[in-house]
Design the sequence.
């Protein structure tokens, strides 16, 4: 844009004398027109541009050496130096004027917003719940040049899924998607944050139960393995892979069942997700089986040999019948340190009527605790028949005599048993 200002004429005086210039120096041509170049310019904040100005005579001839004065209509937007250099200061429009001898021309300076585009990187951020990530925002001016030093305002459009801090740090809170927006001087861009569920806790250590077991050759035992987190909490993990450090002593199946094979020690190991726990197995020799208990067969009752001896007793209703003892046995276990042992006692009898027919058949069985007495006898405490008291003593090599008292006051009956 060229602005022109009219210049007044200065005609020569009329008449004689010293009118006009006479014989003096000719007056310089006045400035008729001022031009500027460029007439319009766009600058980003902080940029500079030198504006050129020419002064011309009325006939178009360029006039050199004429003083040009520079000014800005809006110095807050664009300043101009005495040499015509313009500096963009803020967004807006300013007219830069070059004036000489009352004539002027202007250059239109436009300072656009310093940011025309914002970019957020990465454009997509994948996180798991509980993880953090960082987004970075870059601003660019109208010409595509980076603009630095400007504040960035961060906003999460779905803060329930992911939040964002003032420095662009993103925190994933819940599974889903959230768009994170960065705004610089009113210009925005977004990034997509994809949040997946948290991974299962890592296996920190494996607890094997039992930690130690003692077995005898031929015995077996089941071990279990529990994967645990660093917080000692159970975690989901693949099944354990079991192994034995000494299969010759103890083997282990895929489900943790240990079989004792030979005397020695073996470590039973469970490996889950690359983490191993272990328990120990000590295998001892199998002791020899205890000897079979001695069974004493009933051979006499009240001194009479069986089964030939016949005895009479009163039957209900006053009927007299005969009782024939057919047999029996006495079987004590080995006595412990306290002088006690479990025992079994069995007696078999049949009752016949006078005509020889069988009235009934009885089987008496008793078991309980045998206790050694100070006189060398053994007191048999029945666990099945209250009121029956038995004592036993040696009746010779390989024999035992058992005395039975009925109700403490009843008849005493004595049985002789011989080891079979």
Sequence:
């Amino acid at each position: 844009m060229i602005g022109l200002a009219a210049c007044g004429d200065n005609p020569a005086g009329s008449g004689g004398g010293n009118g006009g210039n006479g014989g003096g120096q000719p007056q310089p041509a006045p400035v008729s027109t001022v031009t500027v170049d460029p007439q319009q310019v766009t600058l980003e904040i902080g940029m500079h541009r030198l504006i050129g100005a020419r002064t011309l005579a009325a006939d178009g001839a360029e006039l050199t050496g004429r003083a040009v004065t520079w000014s800005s209509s809006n110095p807050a937007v664009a300043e101009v130096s005495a040499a015509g250099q313009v500096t963009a200061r803020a967004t807006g429009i300013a007219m830069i004027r070059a004036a000489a001898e009352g004539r002027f021309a202007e250059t239109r300076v436009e300072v656009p917003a310093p940011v025309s585009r914002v970019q957020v990187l990465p454009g997509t951020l994948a996180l798991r719940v509980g993880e953090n990530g960082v987004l970075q925002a870059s601003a660019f001016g109208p010409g595509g040049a980076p603009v630095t030093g400007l504040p960035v305002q961060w906003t999460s459009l779905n803060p329930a899924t992911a939040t964002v801090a003032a420095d662009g740090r993103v925190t994933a809170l819940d599974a889903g998607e959230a768009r994170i927006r960065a705004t610089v001087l009113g210009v925005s861009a977004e990034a997509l944050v994809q949040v997946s569920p948290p991974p299962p806790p890592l296996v920190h250590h494996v607890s094997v139960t039992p930690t130690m077991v003692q077995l005898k050759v031929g015995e077996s035992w089941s071990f279990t393995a529990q994967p645990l987190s660093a917080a000692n909490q159970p975690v989901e993990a693949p099944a354990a892979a079991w192994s034995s450090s000494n299969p010759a002593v103890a083997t282990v199946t895929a489900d943790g069942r240990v079989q004792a094979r030979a005397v020695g020690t073996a470590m039973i190991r469970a490996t889950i997700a690359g983490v191993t726990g272990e328990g120990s197995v000590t295998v001892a020799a199998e002791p020899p089986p205890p000897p079979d208990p001695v069974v004493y067969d009933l051979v006499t009752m009240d001194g009479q040999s069986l089964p030939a001896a016949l005895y009479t007793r009163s039957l209900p209703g006053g009927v007299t019948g005969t009782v024939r003892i057919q047999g029996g046995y006495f079987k004590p276990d080995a006595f412990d340190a306290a002088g006690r042992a479990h025992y079994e006692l069995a007696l078999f009898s049949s009752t016949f009527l006078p005509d020889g027919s069988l009235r009934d058949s009885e089987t008496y069985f008793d078991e309980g605790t045998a206790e050694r007495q100070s006189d060398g006898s053994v007191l048999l405490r029945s666990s099945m028949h209250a009121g029956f008291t038995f004592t036993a003593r040696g009746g010779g090599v390989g024999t035992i005599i058992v005395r039975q008292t009925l109700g403490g006051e009843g008849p005493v009956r004595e049985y002789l048993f011989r080891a079979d």
